[in-house]
Design a protein that fits this description.
Elements lengths: L1 H16 L10 E13 L6 E16 L2 E14 L3 E14 L5 E16 L6 E15 L4 E16 L11 E16 L1
Antiparallel strand pairs: 1-2, 1-8, 2-3, 3-4, 4-5, 5-6, 6-7, 7-8
């Protein structure tokens, strides 16, 4: 019984120490991801490296409601080719609750262009996404984030890419789980 009382006391102290109000109007939000990978294969293209940077910046125009922008940069290099992807688009995010854990829903659109460095071919991408997630505040301005997203991607093929597919447009649907940090300023 003593152990249970101690656990509840620690839990109560933790929750009340970092309890949150609504995310206030005038707050900025900075999030995103950075990744690098390097791999080698026994077939075709040999070594491959990838660098990906996807920042997100938002501003709370009213309590718990942010509008912002998503950016994307990705560079893929192999022994045979190099491809660069750029993307930009708006996002909106709505938070629910006033506790240490803030559930949210996000809607976004991302326009992107993927271009190989050696040709004039291009893939034009239009992504619509919905995200359901939780921000767990570890301090008043930093939250650990977990999110489940569904993205619908319409990709228009140009140039040499058309010779690989029977249609000029490819539809792609993606479900993704991600974790990260969210900073509120």
């Amino acid at each position: 019984m003593k152990l249970i009382s101690i656990i509840f006391a620690i839990l109560f102290f933790t929750i009340t120490s970092f309890s949150q109000e609504e995310i206030q109007k005038g707050t900025y939000n900075v999030a995103g991801s950075l990744s690098f990978s390097s791999s080698s294969q026994d077939y075709s293209d040999g070594k491959q490296t990838e660098l990906s940077i996807t920042p997100q910046i938002g501003y709370f125009f009213i309590n718990n409601f942010a509008l912002g922008i998503n950016l994307q940069y990705q560079k893929n290099d192999t022994d045979a080719y190099s491809i660069t992807t750029w993307g930009i688009g708006p996002m909106t995010r709505f938070y629910i609750g006033k506790n240490i854990i803030h559930p949210f829903i996000e809607l976004s659109f991302l326009y992107g262009e993927t271009m190989p460095d050696e040709t004039d071919a291009m893939i034009i991408s239009r992504k619509i996404g919905v995200v359901f997630g939780l921000d767990y505040f570890i301090t008043n301005s930093v939250a650990l984030e977990s999110a489940l997203s569904y993205t619908f991607d319409s990709m228009l093929l140009t140039g040499v890419y058309r010779s690989y597919y029977s249609d000029d447009e490819i539809m792609k649907r993606t479900i993704k789980f991600a974790i990260g940090l969210n900073i509120f300023l």
